[in-house]
Design goal:
alpha/beta, single chain, Rossmann fold, 7-stranded parallel beta sheet, 268 residues
Length: 268
Amino acid sequence: MSEPIRRTVIVTGTSSGLGRGVAERLASLGWDVLGTVRGDGAGLPFETVRCDVTDDDAVSSLGQQVLERWGRLDALVNNAGVSLTGPVEELAPVELRRHLDVNLVAPLALVRACLPALRAAQGVVVQVSSVSGYSASELFAAYSASKFGLEGASEALAAEVAGQGVRVVLVEPGPFRTEIGPKGTQAAAKGSTGLYETFWRETDEWLDWHATSSPNADQCIDAIVGAATRPDAPFRIPVGEGIAEELRRKGEEMIMQAAAAEAFLDSV
């Protein structure tokens, strides 16, 4: 009698935070886990591979490595991400491009590299998005641009691969206590215009709260693991206190905007 096939997963950004928590949990459930790190993965309780997710050659090599080693991939968890804060007027184009490269281009490149293995397993792509993927705030234009983009791309991807037996799930966390805030960057030209002091003060206070007093990440890890392991997971999973309500509020706001647009167009 043959042994059951062990389920396989790539989790990106597993040095700390959500990525490490998800990788540890899946490993404890008996999954073969390969976690990406940019530095030394020594001491982590799962296998790691050094991979800069913005390095096209490294990403392509990872996809090929999975095919040669496992021949299948049950889940790709695109967790790696960075945070950049600042008003649009104080953000340099080079900062924006780097941010979008990590948070938007890299996840899509990883999907591209892993789709042959995902098809072989009838697997799932779990995109770690954010409440900022549908609800934007001052000084988070760059972050929202990356997550709004990820949401739109994931909707298109889901339609493209549904007929191939591959699922796509968006997990949309609110604030959870992870390293993304403390390790995030701010506009190099912070305060240069002298026009956004109030927003900067409020954002710095919020980032301090996020790093020290926001909820621990257990609920979010549960959601991501559920998205990877349960075939009944819905396409969109808002997670965190008040986050589902924010999605409903945003939907109602867009309905009101559609009505206002119709009235406007009738008047022109």
